Here is the input.
Amino acid sequence: MNIEFVTNDYLLAWYLLFKPSFSEEVQKLKVKLYKNYGKQYMRLEKENVEILKYNNDFIPDDDTIYNIIFDSDVFKQIKKETEHHRQFLMKEWDSNSKKIKEIFKEIVRFEVKDIYHILVIHPKLDTIEYMRTNPKKNISWGKADDVEDSMTTLMRIIYTIVKYEIGSFQKENREIVTSIIDLTITNELQTRLTGVSKYTEGFKNLKILKRQLYPYFLMYLGADREELVSYMMRDKMPFDIDKYPVEKELRNVDLFGFIDFCCKNQKYIIRLNNLDMM
Here is the structure.
């Protein structure tokens, strides 16, 4: 899994134009551009799709507004801050990538071959976007809380990459797929990296569904009947082991295989009216 952290001036300028203003200076610039170049301004409304698709190969049909933005003092300052954020993310990834890659491969059991380009934008834009069908694997990234917990930020980036890799696989069972990715990255990968259980984290609206999938996820991780107890104690996620015959074949499949198993057997895995909360 290779990740490159880059910036793109056109993408950064587009977000300043069409995302909520996070400063008075940005708002003034937008108002000025809209008053003087209203039609040209609105023609750029969907251009982020092309920028994300082509990144460095993107060439605008009309660069009038972009050039005005690039020459502004407010953009120069925001670009400087964005570059600082890019360096922060890159440094955190470089410091942790070796260990992350090793554990990631153990858990998902497939190789991410493509290079993912994280197009860093200003964190105050508080945005993550990507095109699921884009073969160039470009993801725009800038979240307000990125610097609060760098490990959590890296987990969110990897979570997004796994969603990209899974694509439309079992798309009719979106909640199951999302829950499994959350268990895999937000919970298990982060737990192994930090040495502290992170199973209280993740999507709160999927908490009950994840509890239903959890015993089978442990079987996927390779836990036998005795090890299930250790995992439950570690994560404080108890269940009645006697109600769950160990599915030994799960330890031999990759994440796609596990998702497929859960979706095909969801009628007996997901028993929301009979959730065992010991």
About this structure: The chain has a mean pLDDT of 94. Strands lie at 2-6, 115-120, 127-130, 138-142.
